[in-house]
Records
---
Amino acid sequence: MEPVNAAIIYYSATGTVHTLARAVAEGAEKAGANVRLRKVAETAPVEAISARPEWGQHIQATADVAEAGLDDLDWADVVLFGTPTRFGNPSSQIRAFIDSTAPLWLQGKLAGKVYSAFTASNTAHGGQESTLLALGNTFYHWGGIIVPPGYTDPVQFKSGNPYGTSHVVGAGAPDEVVLEAARYQARRAVDTAAALKAGRAA
Ligand SMILES: Cc1cc2nc3c(=O)[nH]c(=O)nc-3n(C[C@H](O)[C@H](O)[C@H](O)COP(=O)(O)O)c2cc1C
């Protein structure tokens, strides 16, 4: 059978979600998927970006990462979305990309795919779950199959978020537990998509 196509579509201003996205991509590759790692377009004004040097530095450091397009969504059997938590919600950059998907949605092309999501926030109670659940609203509208990590692997009892991998930036850079949770989440989503693909082909 054809391998599963996995798109990892993320936004990151200062690199944390990018680090998670790379671990997700690694987990998806190890699970046997064809992987596209894609950042969404930056929409913030230059003045806002230049006010925070680490933001501009991250843009430069990831200049080689391709921008997400509708063809990536169309191509994918499974899509994992990553976003920083912004006032308890996904970032406007990831929302802008999602709001551009109506042409695919109208054709029913977003239905039946596997979706999962991951995030980062500054504080432990800063809204990670609300961000992930907010992305879930879109997946419902698309007719997606939402595959969260749950507590289905020992790493989930250490990382602790059944809704999706999430990192608390205030605690430092993502450590091996959160990166392993990201790899695991990808594996679970890819395995589910592979089972669906095989079942549909049968
Ligand atoms: C406009 C804005 C809103 C934010 N809102 C929250 C929030 O509600 N809760 C929180 O814990 N952190 C919040 N943060 C911190 C971000 O979540 C944090 O900077 C981000 O996860 C870092 O990810 P990145 O390095 O990939 O950009 C906010 C940051 C900005 C700029």
---
Amino acid sequence: MTQTPFFRIRSTRLAPVLLAAAAWLAPAAAFAQIAIGDPWVRATVPQQQASGAFMKLTASKPARLVEARSPVAGVVEIHEMRMEGDVMRMRAVPGIDLPAGKPVELRPGGYHVMLMALKQTLTAGETVPITLVFEGEDRRRETVEIKAPVRALTTGSAAPMDKH
Ligand SMILES: [Cu+2]
């Protein structure tokens, strides 16, 4: 009996550390109801004002990505890029709907988290902290912190990320 409290205290103290380590080591880790797969941020060149963050979101229950924040950017918006006629246009959207069990991809040429008013150059190999806010059908909000590696764009859409 005397050892029980000791172990309780130990496990309470360890739990947050282990959770943080798991989030860091597993890019595709599931956070509660939302799985965030393969997050990345496009590298920038000096003086570039904007970039995009991309990932695959899979919600176990219907949810919506409603907000994003990052310490590297003065302004962060959720954007959609799509063809209107033969012109590729980007616009801010209030959120991205995540149907239950259906992966929604944020990728160059489609939905993305727009990082604007960048405070630093984003160099390949670094990681960028991003806070994502999800809202469930019950309107309850859940905040998830991720660390997205910075990658140089080598494939996919060549649409400029700096022109809005
Ligand atoms: Cu954009």
